[in-house]
């Protein structure tokens, strides 16, 4: 039986995509079997659109059972298997479609995509290699072939494909960039250089390309060649900041920084470029304390703040340099200006808190840390420093809360955990909770047995109680073994001997503390005065108490000692 179908075949095309190609103006006859097969194909496409993929699979398979040469059904079946993540079956089906229609680029592209999904990059490259042969004027296929060759680590072949693209379709920045990177990866620096040189030759007035070549020469240690390019850049644009920086005098770092002043004074030069040039010098100041270099860098930082007064980064850099140059009060001022412009950077707040601590301004530390906790409630260091501030202010309960919160947030940082437990030991001691104090100190030393500051603090607090002087002496001696010339540790050990009424031994250790820098420490000076008084040298005792007061001690007991010329403990 023969049936006639006319123009309504557009509906079939809409649903099935590529089952038949009909001329809507012509008439063609089909067998009943062909019509039924087409109906099944249409039904399969409907199930696909509805998302009933398993049903679609069954129907497309039925089409292929009826018509084994139906490449469209094989393609659609492959797509369904792909959606269902049945990669092996999808591969088998799409290969069948390609065998039936070798010229169909969509089938082959689908196979390549499937190979990518299956991480068969070399196989995908081969598919696009075949497509390149069939369609030699399609640049996209070349690009995809090269892409998969790179993914399969076949960089040499990838470069060859890129060479074909260049010769056939022309030179582009993206193409040169890819070849340049591949040559660098292969360790072929000369060829990598030649690629960038081709770009600068093709576009001689493009300064971006000139910079790329100059930066490349710098990276591979070809400084003179880099300078040659930078000089060429300045013939095109005499105000180019990066070229001027690169060609500035390098007769010495301080001289070099001084030579950068004209560039730093230019408002149009990006602040990030200026800061990038300063970073290695800031780091060197931090590592070496080089005063000459610091002064030269600080001069540039000051220019930064004048030229970029509304950019927080300029004041932050200035603060960093002052901080590394041991000018804490000036550094603090610059960091505070940074925060006025931008209060969203935690590291700046952190520097402010540590400077408050260094300057022993615990009122400021308490306020700053509370402000930080409002902005950054999940920072362990903020709780830690808030705990220190409250501890120094005598707010023991608040200090304990802060330290315990810091403990919860710093579980992976053993050193910080040890320090926090040590701080808790001090607070518990000051709250007369001696059992908790001892437990906290023991936890700290279990985490960090060689923490000499914790050993020193623990021994000092044990000695204060007066009931464990032998244990305190042993612990203090251990801290000195770890840090032999530290005056604070020597002072503690001497003071413990003093508590044990070994005044001669105490004086010997306080003499060592004074020789190692204790002359500037009020506590050391006061303790030395106490020892001299016990050794009946009352005039010298008064002299050292007065020195302690001059060095900043605000102890009321010390004032009473000086006023009455009498020892009080």
What is the strand and helix layout of this fold?
Blueprint: E1 2-5, H1 9-16, E2 28-31, H2 32-49, H3 53-66, H4 71-83, H5 87-100, H6 105-117, H7 121-134, H8 139-151, H9 155-169, H10 173-185, H11 189-202, H12 207-219, H13 223-236, H14 241-246, H15 253-259, H16 261-264, H17 271-288, H18 291-307, H19 312-324, H20 328-341, H21 346-358, H22 362-375, H23 380-392, H24 396-409, H25 414-430, H26 434-447, H27 452-465, H28 469-482, H29 487-499, H30 503-515, H31 522-534, H32 538-550, H33 556-564
Antiparallel strand pairs: 1-2
**What is the radius of gyration computed over CA atoms, rounded to a whole number of angstroms?**
40 Å
The averaged pLDDT comes out at: 87
Q: Kindly name the structural category.
A: mainly alpha
User: So what's the CATH class of the domain at 1-101?
Assistant: Mainly Alpha
Shape: elongated
CATH topology-level name of the domain at 1-101: Serine Threonine Protein Phosphatase 5, Tetratricopeptide repeat
What is the CATH architecture descriptor of the domain at 1-101?
Answer: Alpha Horseshoe
Quaternary assembly: single chain
Taken as a percent bin, the fraction of beta residues is under 5%
What distance separates the N and C termini?
123 Å
Q: Report strand order across the widest sheet.
A: 1-2
In this structure, how is the largest beta sheet organized?
2 strands, antiparallel
Helix content: over 70%
Tally of separate helices:
33
